Amino acid sequence: MTSLELVPLWAAILALGVFMYVLLDGFDLGVGMLFGLRSDPQDRDMMVASVAPVWDFNETWLVLGGVGLMAVFPLAFAIVIPALYFPILVMLLGLLFRGVAFEFREVEGARRWIWDTGFVLGSFAATLMQGVILGNFIQGFEVDGRDFAGSSWDWVAPFPLLTGVGLVFGYLLLGATWLVLKTDGDLQAWARTMSQRALWGVLAFIVLMSVWTPLSEPRIAERWFSFPNLLWFAPVPVLTAALAIVLYRALHGGRELLPFLCAFGLFFLSFTGLVISLWPYIVLPSITLWDAAAEPRAQGFLLVGTMFLLPVVLLYVCWSYWVFRGKVRAGHGYHG
């Protein structure tokens, strides 16, 4: 296969990896942040138990995205890493503290308040920095030829920081709807309330980004509002509004699974809008996927192993969530 054929395939694989990570690790990071807003020890134990069987392997998708970017699009990796060194470092430290706190809070005689604080702060730091990284990809990087020409502090800007706040609301929505699905009683009722509040934050962020990005980037405005693109892409905002209404009604109607699926749908549509805005660039404003790609032989070699491993990972994820389906009870695990 030629580079012309392999690059879109690899772009789809990396997009799948990033999307799966955002969805699957997003809800447990959301639970981690919500954990800090709930003080009852039994409720906290239930929140932790709801994600205990799945949180660690969700990060498999983050590894796929990072390694894939380095191996298949090395030029993009060489530009992005120095530009986002500090957000990536803080994100990884946040994930590390989240994981350590998750395990150590269960140790007999442990000072739980220390590990609980680490659990909350680690989840928040990782989420905020992931949003900052996303915002920088949308905002673009200062590039001179094939080298990063900016500063390691370019990420400290209004747009990336606002994107970080937006992702915090997004993960809170995923986490709260996950708790609606996995818990009952007072904790579930509280999770419904938090889902509604997070939904308003997500919608405000979507509207703000939908206005900000076309006004600041003429290329994105032309992509969305020129004819006939306007007709082709119109379903994205229409479906987003429809899903938000369905989600709101599902929360008020006592539904359990539907709010979580609708939250997934909102992320999928937002991700679709992002792809539409950025394609075919991987490093704005000048480096396309083909410019950044490795040699076709290297892409083909890596593809062979990926085609074996990717179905295995997908099957394992599906099997794990099936095994741990049902409601969670503090101290008693899952009940189907």
Largest beta sheet: what is the strand line-up?
Answer: 1-2
Can you tell me the number of structural domains?
Answer: 1
**Could you tell me the strand content as a percent range?**
under 5%
Helix content: over 70%
Mean of all residue-level pLDDT scores: 88
Poorly predicted runs are none
Number of strands: 6
Our count of helices gives 14
The sequence of SSEs as H and E is HHHHHHEEHHHHHHEEHHEE
Q: Which structural class do the helices and strands define? A: mainly alpha
Shape: globular
Main sheet characteristics: 2 strands, antiparallel
What is the alpha-carbon Rg in Å? 20 Å
Walkthrough of the structure:
- By secondary structure, the protein is mainly alpha-helical.
- The chain has one domain.
- It contains 14 helices and six strands.
- It has a two-stranded antiparallel sheet. It has a two-stranded antiparallel ribbon with strand order 3-4. A two-stranded antiparallel sheet has the order 5-6.
- The radius of gyration is 20 Å and the shape is globular.
